[in-house]
Amino acid sequence: MSGCSLRQQNNSFNLTEQEVTSILNDACTIKRDTRQRYKIDGKRYKTLSSSKGYKKRGIASWYGADFDGKQTACGEEYDMYDFTAAHKTLPLPSYLKVQNLRNGKTVIVKVNDRGPFVDDRLIDLSYAAAKKIDMLESGTSPVRVFAVSEAEAANYFKNNEKSIFSLSIFEKIVNRNKRSITLQVGAFSNSDGANSLKKRIESLGVDNVFISKARSKRKTFHRVRIGPVKTSREYEDAIRKLSSLSLDINLISD
Known about the structure:
Low-confidence stretches: 1-10
Radius of gyration: 20 Å
Order of helices and strands: HEEEEEEEHEHHEHEEHE
Largest sheet: 6 strands, mixed, barrel
Oligomer: single chain
Number of domains: 2
CATH superfamily of the largest domain: RlpA-like domain
Shape: globular
Strand content: 25-35%
Number of helices: 6
Distance between the termini: 43 Å
């Protein structure tokens, strides 16, 4: 599935080859695991024959709603809620661990696309991957990346929800708690910031936006929330609209 086969990897995660294949659920229809040359905006690129041993530091950025549902370079559709990434020269697919050097947070991603075609950028992360390492608000961040095996990636995906905002999470919370679900999209120490965000969200066509006050350690916070969110369709619609604002969105079960 990548530049080196599973049998050549050190599988210390107690997963069979069938389990790894099932978890990764590789939907790439275009295998680009050999050296290829291509040209973008007048600049030439040559892909690597293998991801084995790859490690590098650089700047990460992220891409979201504008590309959601479009075909990636490996043939599958880009899903902004999966842990994926774009890289200019690694084989497709490859698997990388990405560490945000500002806070130490890490995520494992599947490289299934080409980019980012900006000189100072090393990797373009999906919306979900960027949220996982807390770089949505900054837009870019210095990172360290290094290749991991398919077995390690499968083990990570098995123990971590690939899609932070997947319907399965929403439905699990609803079925388990039978409670009202709201989305918290911001918390401010002053009402001006909260009101400003509320107006921005409403301008996107999102309904039921409200501000809730809460006290913590003698401070008052103005929390911007959306809800209650009652159906899967309402949930998907709200998340898709909100993703353009680079917000740190959290599910709240009251």
